[in-house]
C-alpha cells in the first residue's frame, strides 16, 4: 500500500498530527508514527526517507526536510509497541533534564517516574535507576568540561554567558599571580538593578562554594518590592583587600554604564574583614548588620559555652537568653541600662555568656549602633541563608514580603544544588 499524502489534504493533516520524534541511545533522531518507531535511512536536499526500526519490516515514510509528512508505503508485519514508545519518550525527557540541570540523576529519575504515570507494561521494561544513572553519568561528564584541579583554569565561552547568550561573567581577576582569583557573575540587567537600588543586602555563604574558592558572596538588591539576586561572587578569602577590589570594580562598571554604585543603605553580617571596607567605600551609606546574624552569634556562643541543653529544657534560662537578644530592639540609649538590669537578675549559669556579650557587643568589638535595630526597616539580610528562621516584628508589610521572597529563593537555590561544594561548572549552570 502506498499513500501519497500530497493529494489527500485531509489525510495529510490527520496523520501529520500522529508524527512525533524521539532520540536513539546513540543520539540519532527517530520518527514515531502510530506507536511505531522509524529511523532515518537517507536524506536528500528535499526529502528524508524513514524506515521501520524492525529490520524485517518494509514500511517507509517520506517527509520533507522540515518534517512535513509526504507519504507512507507498506504495511507493518509486526504489532506496535506503545509501551516501548512510552519508555523511550520518558528517557528522552530525563536525559534532557540531566544534561541541562545540576540536580542529581537519581532525583530527576524519581521525579519523572512519578509524573509519567507509566503503564504496568512500561514500568516493567524501564531501566532501574542504577542502570540509568550509570549511562547518564557518562553522558553528563561528556557534556561537561574537565573539573579544574587548581584555580588556574579557562572558562569556556558557554559558561561566560547567560542562557540567552548574553555576557554573564563580569569579573575574572587574580589578586596574586596564580592564586586568589575573583569571579563575579552578573548580567548587564542585574548590574543596572544593583546600581539603581537604594538598599542592598550582602552575605557570604560557604557550603555551596566550589573548590579553590573560599566563599560565595551574594549581593541582593531591594527592587520592585522584592529581593533580587544581582551578583554571584566567588571570592578566595574574607580579607579586606578582596572586598575592596570587588567594590572598586563595581564602581568602575557603574561609571562605564553612566551611573554610580552608591547605595543609601547596606545590610551585611558581622564579618570583621567586610565591616571596615563598607565604611571606607561607602562612607555616606547607612551600614547596618542584620538581626539574623546577631541572634545567630548569640546562639552559637550559647552552644560553645555548653548551654544548649539548658536553653532547650530550662524555660528560665531560655527566657533570659531571649531577653539578651531582645536588647537589639531597644533604643540605643537604653541598651546599656537594660543590660545592667539583666546582669542583676540573670542566673549565674549564664555568667560567661554575659561576659562575652559585654566584651563583644556592649563595650567591645562591635559598636551598639551597628547591631541595634530599633529604627530599622530591614531587620535581617536573610538573603543568602535558605534554612534560617527569623521571627521579628517588621514595621512595614513590604519588608515582610521581601524577606519571604528571599527565603523562598534561597530554599530553591540550595535545593537545586542538592549537594555541598558543587564543582565550578555545576555552580555556574545553576546561576545562569
Provide structural commentary.
The chain is α+β, with helices and mostly antiparallel strands and about 425 residues long. The chain has 4 domains: about 1-80, N-terminal domain of TfIIb, CATH 2.20.25.240; about 85-140, no CATH class; about 155-290 and about 380-430, no CATH class; about 295-370. Helix content is about 40%, strand content about 20%. It is built from 16 helices and 14 strands. It has helices at about 10-15, 80-100, 105-115, 120-125, 130-140, 190-195, 240-255, 275-280, 290-305, 310-315, 315-325, 335-345, 350-360, 370, 395-415, 425-430, and strands at about 1-5, 20-25, 30-35, 35-45, 45-50, 60-65, 70-75, 170-175, 180-185, 200-205, 215-225, 225-235, 265-270, 285-290. The strands form 2 sheets. A 7-stranded antiparallel β-sheet has the order 1-7-6-5-4-3-2. It has a 7-stranded mixed β-sheet with strand order 8-9-12-11-10-13-14. A hairpin with a 5-residue loop joins strand 2 and strand 3. It is elongated, with a radius of gyration of 30 Å.
